[in-house]
Design goal:
Length: about 280
Amino acid sequence: MPTVDRVLPTETGTEQITVVPPVQPESEPEPIVSVVVPALNEARNLPHVFERLPQVDEVILVDGGSIDDTVAVARRLRPDIRVVTQNRKGKGNALACGFAACTGDIIVMIDADGSTDPGEIPSFIAALRAGADFAKGSRFRPGGGSADITRLRRAGNKMLSVLVNMLFGTRYSDLCYGYNAFWSCHLDVFDLDSTSPLPAGGDGRLWGDGFEIETLLNLRAARARLAIEEVSSFEHNRIHGVSNLNAFTDGIRVLRTIAREWPRGFKRGSRQVAGRSAR
């Protein structure tokens, strides 16, 4: 309510009244949002993905050495885009390089193949603004789903989720899904390597450079006791091209990731808040 200051009567006998408007509380500034999009030969998929992007402050495309016109298409669609070339191989390395280049308060990671819906980004941001440190997408919460996952991958994901929940004291419903968002101030928690050169031998990847990155992020968020909220998400079919995911070999890498992460002084019991629907 406005406050009223009354002063002494004037010579005319009338009273002067000064109305002081109420002090408006300062509104919380909008966070700067960075979106990281790892891409390898995704030129045909980028128009769909970028068309679905809501208003964000920064889009970083991490190119994995595409031999099509992925980079040219990205720059044509979004002249303001920042293009980063990853220094090794694999999705994990691409994300590490993209995260390191972000300047926003919130970092969102989506796929370039159309499987993750950019239209769900506001729900992830809402979860963070409501108090979560790490907003984790889930296909298996009410309101979520998948048009892409096979029975084998679903069963494997379920078993791995149960294992992690037992060992780490978490309540994850979907361990192996790569649609996540987090406050950039927590980036150091994940301890990702974006600077080491390409190794001389092997497949050109260091540990964490492959699809195991999704599990790695989830485990390190739990180990750091971040406030985690699951956000319901629907996974679509890849629009064009073929996925590089291999259910068996990548499942083994996830198992090795769990074994590597669990003994490292982990204190059970992450802070997990109630999930929400992205739809």
